[in-house]
Each structure stands twice: as structure tokens, then as C-alpha cells.
Amino acid sequence: MLFPTTIAGSLPKPEWLAEPNKLWAPWKSSGDELLRAKRDATLLAVKVQEDAGVDIVTEGEQARQHFVHGFLEKVEGIDFAHKVEMGIRNDRYKAMVPQVVAPLRLKGRVHAFEAQAARAHTRNKLKFTLPGPMTIIDTISDSYYGDRVKMAFAFAELLNQEALALQADGVDVVQFDEPAFNVYMVEAADWGIKALERAAQGLTCTTAVHICYGYGINANTVWKETLGVEWRQYEQIFPAIDASPIQQVAIECRNSRVPLELLGLLKGKVVQAGVIDVASDVVETPEDVAATIEAVMKFVPKANIVATTNCGMAPMHRDIAEAKLRALGAGAKLARKRFA
Ligand code: ZN
After folding, report:
1. SS3 of 90, please?
2. Cα separation of 142 and 188, whole Å?
3. How far is the CA of 251 from the centre of ligand 1 (A)?
4. In DSSP terms, which residues pair with 141 in a beta bridge?
5. How high is the pLDDT of residue 228?
6. Cα 310 to middle of ligand 1, angstroms
7. What share of the chain is helix, strand, coil (3-state, %, to 5)?
8. H/E segment holding residue 84
9. Interval between CA 234 and ligand 1 midpoint (Å)
């Protein structure tokens, strides 16, 4: 089937699970009640995607508070009690971050609960997202390794353990989110992609990397204004990604200033093309979606195009996010009819 659909990863959380419309939203309950709420929200996220015509569903990232720290919570060697201020993404924003203080080790499984809950309740293909090593080390302070690259590879090993376990849970696609790749282009091409390959080592399921210009939050919108008329950052890293065994690349295409001709640098890859803008509350029409797919088809063979959202939808209003999912499903269907 042409243009199978998926989402970047996250969906908004219901207001009974966490405070709506924000990142890092506090949970509304705790203990067993929170666990049940996370499970219920996961099933709902799967159902909403199925109903909208999303072929490769995710668990909506309903069981984690943040896409990086959801992983870090299960890692030994991190001091969460003494956070320090750090500039993130080359100082685009400041955040209080935990510190690595000892050798890193997994305390156990990280995402077994929600992966298995989602797997048990859908026959669709299931995609699961993990933060990439370079993005993790850009979100945590180091008081132990004394070397960013060494710390990234230490995280890559842990990610690999969890990724292999997710595959055993029945996950069909493991996607690593690396928004740091278009901020540190030289390092990404130099060692970031190698760290990613370490994280994906031994996987036989589909592997993907999502690079992006971020959620529609203010700090990102302000940063994007500084990037010029055309966003050509990918020109520096696509050749290295194309040479890697990672199979799919997920990037934003809708309302994006990324020149789509850069997709031509990804000759051997399946492109998860973002056809839904998550930085705008304007809901795309199916025509809009089909038009973006058509634009991508100029540079990517149509058999290699997956239609997705530009980025995660975590901070959006639920009704808008769901309307956008329906547009995604309907738009891909229209494109199939038109471009078959
Ligand atoms: Zn993203």
C-alpha cells in the first residue's frame, strides 16, 4: 500500500491523566491509580489513531512525562535530587537537568508496560519512540564521564537493551528521536549517527530516526526565526544518515522551510514525511495532505513515502490533534487514489 500513515510519536494526554496543553505536565494521580490511568490513556491513544486511519500506531507516549526523561527515570547513575541549570540545544533554552554521577546502567525495563498494553490492543503495526543518544546527552549534565561522546555511547548501550526488548514485545518500528541532529550538525555527522547505530545494533525490526525543528512551543518558534529563509541544516547530515543502516528518516515537510530537494540526499531511505503541522492549530484538509505528499514525490520514490506528523502532538489541544489525525488518514487515502 502506498503512503502508509503514522505519527511522530506523542499525542496529548487526557486531562484525567495529566494537566493538558503543556510539556512536563504533572500527573493527576499516583501509585496504582496512575498506572491504571496510563494504561487506559494508552488504549485510547491507540483507538483514536486506528479510527483516524493511522496504519502504524504508537502508544501516544501516554506513560511518560517527557520524551527524554521518561527514559532517564529508569537509569541508574543519575542524580535527580541535585539538578543543575544547563543550556539546551546550543542554549536555545535553559532547563534544570539531572546529573550523571556514576556508571550508567538500566534498573530494568523502561517501557514494557505501555508497549505491551498497546501491543495487546491493536493489530496495526506498532511504532515505539526512544530518545537518541545525542539528544539525551544534550538534556543531562555530566559529572562522571568527563567526555560527551563517551557518555553518549554509554546511553546508546542502554537504549539498545531497551530497543531489543521492545522488539521482543512485538514492536514493529523502533524510532530514535534526535532533534539535536540539526543543531550540532558537525558532531552529528562525526559521531552522533555512529552512537545511533550503536543504539540500533542487532535490531531486525524497522529502524527510524526522527529529526525535527521541535514542538510548536515559543522557544522553538523564536529559534526558527533565526534560521533564515531556507533551512538547509540537513544538507550536512543527510549524507552520513544515508550511509548508515538506519532505514527510515522522519522529518517535517508541512509548512516547513526545509527545501524538499534535500530529501533527494536520502536515496536509500524510506522517508516519513511530516504532512501535518504541529506548530499550528489550523487543521489541514485532506487536499493539503495530498499536496504535501505530491511535493515530496518529486524527490522521493512514492513507494518510499510514509505520511506522518511533523513532530509530537503532546502540547496540543486534544480535539485539534484528533482532527489533524483524521486529516492525515483521509489525506493519505486521497493521495493513494490520486497517485496510484
Ligand atoms: Zn520532533
Report:
1. coil
2. 19
3. 8
4. 99
5. 83
6. 7
7. 40, 20, 40
8. strand 75-88
9. 14
Give per-residue pLDDT as tens, 276-323: 999 999 999 999 999 999 999 999 999 999 999 999 999 999 999 999
pTM: 0.96
Which residues, chain by chain, have CB under 5 Å from ion ligand 1?
212, 311
Q: Is 313 helix (H, G, I), strand (E, B) or coil?
A: coil
How many whole angstroms from 318 Cα to the centroid of ligand 1?
18
Domain 31-339, CATH among 3.40.50.720, 3.20.20.210, 3.40.50.2300, 3.50.30.60:
3.20.20.210
The helix/strand/coil state of 256 is coil
166 CA to centre of ligand 1 in angstroms: 21
- Domain residue extents for the chain: 31-339
Residue 278 CA to ligand 1 center (angstroms) comes to 9
Does residue 182 surpass a pLDDT of 90?
Answer: no
For the chain, what's the residue count?
340
